Amino acid sequence: MKLTTQIANQFRQVYLNGKWIANTNLKEQLSDLTWQQATTKINSLNSIATLAFHLNYYTAGLIKVFEGGPLDIKDQYSFDIPPIASQEDWNTLINTIWSNAEKFADLVEQMPDDQLWTPFVKEQYGNYYRNIIGVIEHSYYHFGQIVILKKQILSAT
User: Of the N and C termini of the chain, which has fewer Cβ atoms inside 10 Å?
Assistant: First the structure.
């Protein structure tokens, strides 16, 4: 099996269908939330919706590069979620996340393994491997926050 296939499967596990590391995945955790639950803020913490948007912001930014476009994402905008004021808004966001997750994984899987070791946009950004694995690690980090927030929100209602 190609390394890129293994990495793509690892990405799919955290987003779409995994049970290996966390015994759940992002899709399972977000799909049963109402928009009100997803946008609930606890103290000064980000909402679940904001964290989900944040994760997708980086996934979408890397997809653009994988497809030959520029790297034009900036950390300062990564939490700038558009208003979620209805279930339709929430469903649109999570459906975009699932679509981008599939696309991201498919594009990684299609890469030749040797591309993993080539510079990502600029040499200062490291190689493709570092950036793809970074997105996976970043996803698990915020996924853990989402799970904890969800438990707190559901226990309060």
Answer: N
84 CA to centre of own chain: 18
Cα–Cα distance for residue pair 21/3, rounded to 1 Å: 19
Supply 35's token pair: 């928009």
* pLDDT tens digit sequence for 85-141: 999 999 999 999 999 999 999 999 999 999 999 999 999 999 999 999 999 999 999
In the chain, the amino acid numbered 151 is: K
Domains of the chain from N-terminus onward: 3-156 (1.20.120.450)
| DSSP string computed for 58-115 | HHHHHHHHHTT------GGGTT-PPP--SHHHHHHHHHHHHHHHHHHHHHHHHS-GGG
C-alpha dist (Å) from residue 25 to 15, 101, 146, 149: 6, 12, 11, 15
Tell me how far the alpha carbon of residue 124 is from its chain's centroid: 23
Rounded-to-integer distance, Cα 121 and Cα 69, Å: 10
Tokens representing 156 are: 């309060």
